[in-house]
Amino acid sequence: MSRQPIALSDAEVAAVRSWVVHEDAHVLALNKPSGLSSQGGRIRAHTLDDLLWAFARSNGKRPELVHRLDRDTSGVILAARTKPAAGFLGKALQGRRVRKTYLALIESAAEPRDGRINQPLRREEIGREAYSRVVEPGAEGAQASESLYRTLAASEAGALVELRPLTGRMHQLRVHMASIGRPLVGDVRYGGALTLAGRAAPRLMLHAWRISAPHPEGGELTAEAPVPDDMRALAEAAGLSLPG
Fold it and tell me: pTM of the entire structure?
């Protein structure tokens, strides 16, 4: 089903084009800012999906997102420029051949410094709010969920962790880290600290830093999104060195 083009302002077109971190004939990778919904959402504003009309071709075809990021999560997200590329990347995601690496700030630098979290999650709703919770294996609605975490830097104030989701459940990394007593800084929904090193956390401190995926034409595509200034400033205040 074809969708009607959405009129974008010059400022919106310039903004979304400035977020491009990789572009070729098949795949587009963008550095989504925090506060922007990937798709849908209840806020009456353009989503990233809407903004992809900035890349529409003369025949009316435009890139399509192949996965999502939470509204408050910043970082790299992939869009397919052609229908075959969308199908290829969709199958790669289903086959767990896409490697996603996130960076997050946490208040606790407790041991162990790294590990694997294998806890089923269930999506639940309260009113219009959706969230995930850890449930016992075999519980009604339980979905197998697995994440890896690794501490990259630690100080008295907190820690910088690298996170890798091996499955793709809603809010997976946030819920898994909270389940081991290390909720992400700024994560109001799942019990995260609202400050770090005496500074207010302006938002959820979770950034999709790198993504690697098989490319439709062969080989592998790796795209990185620079860590945003607000997260960098909070990490530096806590004495934590960011990669790169």
Answer: 0.94
227 phi/psi in degrees, rounded to 5: -65, 130
- Which one is catalytic: 50, 70, 72, 187? 70
Q: What is the pLDDT of residue 99?
A: 97
Question: Cα(199)–Cα(122) distance, rounded to whole angstroms?
Answer: 33
- Largest Cα–Cα distance in the chain? 56
- 34-91 pLDDT, tens digit per residue, is 999 998 755 556 899 999 999 998 888 899 999 999 999 999 999 999 999 999 999 9
**Catalytic site includes residue 70:** yes
Q: What is the number of residues in the chain?
A: 244
- Could you give the 3-state DSSP secondary structure of residue 208? strand
> What is the distance between the alpha carbons of residues 74 and 130, in angstroms, rounded to a whole number?
20
Contact criterion met (CB below 8 Å) for 38 and 47: yes
- Which helix or strand (DSSP H or E) is residue 96 part of? none
Structurally, at CATH architecture level, domain 10-237 sits in: 2-Layer Sandwich (3.30)
Write down the domain spans for the chain: 10-237
Can you read off the two tokens belonging to residue 116?
């694997």
Contact between residue 69 and residue 59 where contact means Cβ atoms under 8 Å apart: no
For residue range 202-236, list pLDDT tens digits in order.
999 999 999 999 999 999 999 999 999 999 999 99
